[in-house]
Specification:
The protein is an alpha+beta fold. The chain has 2 helices and 6 strands, in the order H-E-E-E-E-H-E-E.
Length: 137
């Protein structure tokens, strides 16, 4: 009888912890989505589809390619954090092994332009691929 009560109590604790964790993720998702939409909407384009040259953040919503110009906050080798100048938003871009070696000389405070595909990196989008990092002009 004691074993049954212990098993039932363990199952209840597990079920409650799963329910509590899943509700936190759902509540956080709308805020992240709104933040991403705000970033994407700051880009202005002319009739040819080219981004306004005054914008530090550009993204082509159809192909999910774009660039972010900003200041390097941190370069850990496997990821690089860029603070975009216009929105003061920070983006964490993942780097593969080859890129880690190629971009190891980029230091905090450097102004760079990061080209990427698969959309801006967000907690909901972990598929971002860095295609190039160049010093900003």
């Amino acid at each position: 009888m004691k074993k049954k009560l212990l098993i039932i109590a363990a199952v209840l604790v597990f079920a409650l912890s799963v329910a509590a964790c899943s509700s936190k993720k759902e509540a956080a998702a709308p805020a992240t989505t709104a933040k991403t939409e705000t970033s994407a909407n700051t880009t202005t384009r002319d009739e040819s589809g080219a981004a306004d040259s005054g914008s530090d953040l550009t993204e082509d919503s159809q192909s999910s390619e774009g660039t972010v110009t900003g200041v390097v906050e941190e370069n850990k080798g496997f990821m690089i954090t860029i603070v975009a100048e216009e929105g003061e938003e920070a983006y964490v871009f993942p780097l593969d092994e080859t890129q880690s070696e190629e971009y190891k000389d980029i230091k905090s405070g450097d102004k760079v332009t990061v080209s990427y595909t698969n959309g801006l990196p967000t907690p909901d989008n972990l598929d971002t691929v860095v295609t190039d990092i160049q010093p900003a002009k």
